[in-house]
Specification:
Helix content: 10-25%
Distance between the termini: 25 Å
Order of helices and strands: EEEEEEEEH
Strand content: over 45%
Number of strands: 8
Strand order of the largest sheet: 1-8-7-3-5
Length: 108
């Protein structure tokens, strides 16, 4: 999944509990440029965690990050999932006219 400083729509991770009861989880990243609307919670089915990029902390250009989702029982980690992310922080300003032109090309 790619997240960008130019994103105008939500990017998210769904934490899905396929079992019974609640699933306690914790989310971390090896990049401080990724911002989560919550970093822990309890899923009773599906819990959505929104992701954005802090432009002031993102490296210029394209970088990679790993998001780690840990399932916990108490203080013990019982399962871990890692998700690769690409972070885009363009150094050039892209005009709205240029973006519209590129979008129009996609639909030809």
């Amino acid at each position: 999944m790619t997240v960008s400083t130019y994103d105008t729509y939500d990017k998210f991770i769904d934490v899905i509990n396929k079992g019974y009861g609640g699933l306690d989880y914790e989310i971390t990243s090896d990049s401080n440029a990724l911002v989560f609307d919550k970093t822990s919670g309890k899923s009773y089915g599906s819990d959505r965690v929104h992701i954005s990029v802090d432009k002031s902390k993102a490296a210029d250009g394209v970088s990679n990050a790993t998001v780690t989702v840990e399932q916990k029982i108490g203080d013990n980690v019982v399962d871990t999932k890692q998700i690769a992310k690409t972070i885009e922080n363009p150094t050039e300003q892209i005009s709205e006219k240029h973006m519209l032109r590129q979008a129009a090309e996609l639909f030809r």
